[in-house]
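writing this on my phone so excuse typos. first protein, seq and then structure
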Amino acid sequence: MDLVAERLTQEAFAPYGDVIAVPVRPGRKYYSSGLGNARAGAASLSMVMRELVGGLPLEVKLLERHEFSSQTFVPLDVGRWLVVCPHAPLGGPDVAHGRVLIAGPDQGITYRMNTWHHGLTALDRPGRFAMFMRLDGSSGDEEFVPVTPFTIRLGG
């Protein structure tokens, strides 16, 4: 099965969370309404460095979710990067109805709690991100599952 990558927009990403846009004018824009936490736990801010993926097409074999916390990625130094969301409306991974979105260097995202997704994938060059979520140190912090492999391709 193939999933074709398309441009990241708030409309396309709405079922999975929020797009965070860098302001184009001086000032501040708040994105806290998309943050979620369903248990006690500490706020976690981490820095992430991702190597450049070997190019597309890309075969995906593993998905992840964070059942009790939203997860936010803010790009610090990256080109284009992939946002892969094979999440079923009723829960669980659903590759057949998944979306692959291409984010630009000025776009961040917040995955809603319990949203299945693929890990960060840098397309043009290695990428650096700030990541925010809630953790309590339990197995519920993150879950990884193997899936029937699917391929991500760029659109025409």
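second protein below, same order as before
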Amino acid sequence: MKPFKPSIVAPLDSAFQPAVVFNRNYVEKAKASGRAVPLVLGLERENGLVSRYETVVLTEPDAETLRYVERIVKFLLWARGGWKLHFGGPKKIGEFIRKTYSARGSRKFDCEMMTRAYGENLEISFTSAARVPANKEMQVAAGGHLKGFRIGFDLGASDYKVSAVADGKAIFTEEMPWSPVTEANPDYHYHHLSAGLHRAAAHLRAWTPLAAVQPG
């Protein structure tokens, strides 16, 4: 695959290639070759919930195909989670994924993290694309209350705002000038914004319900 050259070159990494562009080019190349086959990935997690992802790949596991599939598997594990991967595609590619996402593979960290999160060893199960389990999702309401500590952060074109909220009460707010366009040094942005977050966190650490009571 011919490397895509974006119109705007990343100053910190001139070889940077956005994943979305690599993925799009790969799928187009696979379909145009006439040798594309379906690949369906089904991530199973707690209570039998399953999240499916469907695409196509070349039948032979060349370097681009392995990179494409491995990156998708990693993204799905962290975006959707799961302890069992139903791999519905070419077995040679599946074997590569099983070896990569193992206790001794290059993605050992990801494997161990999913095992810790779900209390089950990460498992790769080979099947056909047609037999990957159907989607089974469940909506769960999150939040709906104001209890606890929160930090709010808003980046603008000329300033940033940060606030600290404890049990629904704003105990710290700050608006600071910031120059994201004219400052090219990444250290400027890191230290500037990190300082704001740390100031908000410091107020939360020092806050107690009694501190909110004003003398009558």
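The chain has a mean pLDDT of 90. thats all i got for now
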